[in-house]
Records
---
Amino acid sequence: MFTRNRPYGVARAALTTLLLAVLGLALGAPLASAHGFSSVVYVAVTAPERGHVRAELGLEYDLLVVSAADSEKDDPLFREGTAAFDAQDPVAQAAALTAHTKAVNAYVGKRFTVATDAQACTPTQAGDYTMTMRDGAPYALLVLDYACPEPADEHEVRSELFPDSETYVKDTKTILTYDLDLKSGSAALDKEHRSFSTHQSTTERFWEFFRLGAEHLLTGIDHILFLLALIAGSRRLREVVLAATSFTLAHSVTFVLAALGIVHVPASFVEPVIALSIAVVAGWHLWRLRQRGLHAGELETIRNRRLSLDRAGWIRLGVVFCFGLVHGLGFASALGIDAAWSWQLLWSLLVFNIGLETVQLTIIALVFPILALLRRRTPITALWVTGALSAGVAVTGLVWFVQRVAN
């Protein structure tokens, strides 16, 4: 008896752990900052002439203020910069940075470098600080002109910006686009890969974007919860496969279009809709539980024998596709690439997307078989577990929706 029930016990224990984790997210996520785990630095590097490199940096404003003030022992920068941040006043924010240019540039200059043959290029600020909004957060734009010791055919760009003494920032990804040394493209840097060289091979650059895509989904709690809600509400393996395929096709289209700058939708719309999508997909399963009770996992009359989907399955597939279009815009914001069309750039975007899909399929392959086993052994317990899981996800999505609309 013990041997026969062991798979069920394992499945129940695994799903209980998953349920507790999601409920923990539901309770703790509303307290988390939108950028409480990682930050993104956006950099465009060009070479106006030989021996001259220009870097346009987009830096998250509050982190820049805190880090520069701490590094350069400039308490007035912290007070003035924080006050401008709290007031949400972009003019005052730029003024605070301008008043403390020496401290800000010293901090950035130490941590973002350009070199040729191991010889450092000397940075000089070009123009004033300007402010913009990116991913719902204020960003400071800083342009630096680097004078290199001698003209070279290869350059190395290194970024060690953030985190510093911050305890809530775990990592920073630097999304780099470049047109340098007769080469153009994009690269992704983080704490494990601090530097990029124009001598780097195509394979190395593509691997960086595959890893970046995989990590973005793994660290993107909202996308993971959407996927878990999708799995919990799927009655058959065919349903979750079709739903995942629909989601993939939809977000792939908008992801590429947005990353290439062909489509632009503000984060103030994208982020709340992503949160709403989580609540809707999770709430769909709760609604079926209320309407059909113990029969929620059963199929209705199947109208299309080829795909084996009933009316509810087709409607759900359409809803997932529409929300997938919006999620694609969210994935694209992680790259922040605004560059002209090129085959090299397109391949980078596709490899990033493959990294996303690899993690998505892995999660489905791990979770759905356990859920299927539980449904086969004890259907009532499975309904309670998936219901509780969906409820936790729905609550989290609704809270995020309210927070993002309010912000």
---
Amino acid sequence: MQFTLGIEEEYMVMDPKTRELCSHEQKIVEQAHKLIRDKVKAEFHQAVVEVGTQICTNVEEARQDVALLRKTIWTIAGDLGYSIGASGTHPFSEWALQLITDHPRYFEIVNEMQDAARSNLIFGLHVHVGMENREMALHIANSVRYFLPHIFALSTNSPFWEGRNTGFKSFRTKVFDKFPRTGIPDYFGSIEEYDNYVKLLIKTNCIDNAKKIWWDLRVHPFFNTVEFRICDIPLTTDETCTLAALFQAVCAKIYKLRAQNLNFIIYNRALVNENKWRASRYGIDGNLIDFGKEMEVNARALIYELLDFVDDVVDDLGSRAFIENTSRILEQGTGADKQLRIYEQTNDLVAVADFIQEQFLKGV
């Protein structure tokens, strides 16, 4: 089976003078449409631009596409007098001052969710991994839930919120927790059980379609993909592609085990949530729980164990170089660690915003 990849990134639009988030009045999207067509779209807040790659056969192809998208948006934004960055939250801009995109769907969300929606000024990374069918997608989704906190810890890139050092490596997840149907999903015994859950929500007017299920991981409602939604948007293209490679590798490994009639242990959602909490608070610097050993283990050690776990599938996927970049993140720190370092050196959140901008095209 070929584990195709699709990557979606959300970028922040800033005023180059003040470094505040600002509305681009969809000018960036309009210009980008001419060059990259449907790979770019408006988001809920007018200070956000979302891009998505084509369906890519491997991580190298995905990297080329992400690099092209970043360069394209950066150039268009610069020509229009804006600057661009990638961070799970903006260091100091206030959500109450941000404009909502003029679209009936977004007004409907505001009407239902009120300040939970208005304050949802966050920037994420979504990775789609292609599956042969929805039954296999659900089997893999059930199993890989355990690894979500490990990979999420590597993505942490939102330590600041409205001018405050929150004490979290990923405060973005805390902001998003205000939404319904978020977080680690439950275990579903069959695709029919999952579909019946969705039908019940639609029937009882909780949602009008399955895209309003915003879990950290979901079997996509329309495509044969497992969609990973837990990560902060990373500072750089290389970090994005490393995370995508890890998600692809854990899917391929679970698939390989299934082909050998082996199953990975399914852990309770409440237990996985304990690790997600730790990852959001401490990133790669804390301890995660090893549920097999029933003990706390250094997060870095568990991530290295994850690399060992997937090692026998990465060469077939052609992703070894990207997987090996995980070690660099573990040594140099995540985006959050780097942002906090700049702040410790300068005591200036404008300097942090400048750093976020500077990193956007690094290595591209």
